[in-house]
Structure formats: C-alpha cells, structure tokens
Write a sequence for this structure.
C-alpha cells in the first residue's frame, strides 16, 4: 500500500514537498516513481529513483526544479518541488515497481495558482 501526501495550493514560484509512505512491501527492492496527471491529459512520468544505488531520472519539464529522494529506513519516497509553475498543476501519484509487481498511491492534488 502507498499513501501519498503533501499536496496543496501554492503560488507560482513556491515550493512543496510530497511524500509517499509504503507499507506491506519490501520497499528497498522497489524502484520508486512520481507521476502526474493534469485535467484532460495523460498521466506522465515526473521522476524516478531506482533501488540499490538510487540512480535518478527526471522529465525535462522539471529538471533543475524537482528532486526525488528516498529513505529506505522510513519506507518513504519524497518529491521536493521548487519554483513551481501553473503548468505543474496536477494530481501527483507515486508508484512502486519491482518488475514483478506494481503499486500506486491514491494521488495528491497540487495546484499552482496566484
């Protein structure tokens, strides 16, 4: 089970930190990702961090602004979002993927607006 949290309303240029707490899985063995889905658009990959060495990748639209991290001791993955833009408005979902199984969080709404 994955529980997303940390979303909210923020002004352009502001920051938010999303969290995704995992339970019932061996968290350290899963690659963890953040996706987002804006109204009328397909779900897109924002960032991911692999198990083991923690190699990270980012969508071009968020590079330099967002940072994904994980704490295996707390079974939690984070997404630090800085310099937020109105186009970052979406529901953000975390995903856990081991290759054999996938799990999704319920999503947390992020709205960037003045």
């Amino acid at each position: 089970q994955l529980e997303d949290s940390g979303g909210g309303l923020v002004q352009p240029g502001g920051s938010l930190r999303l969290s995704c707490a995992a339970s019932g899985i061996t968290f350290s063995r899963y690659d963890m990702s953040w996706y987002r889905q804006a109204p009328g658009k397909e779900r897109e990959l924002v960032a991911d961090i692999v198990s083991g060495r923690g190699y990270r990748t980012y969508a071009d639209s968020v590079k330099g602004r967002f940072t994904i991290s994980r704490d295996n001791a707390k079974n939690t993955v984070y997404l630090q979002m800085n310099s937020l833009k109105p186009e970052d408005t979406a529901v953000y979902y975390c995903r856990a993927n081991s290759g054999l199984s996938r799990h999704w969080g319920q999503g947390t709404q992020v709205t960037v607006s003045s």
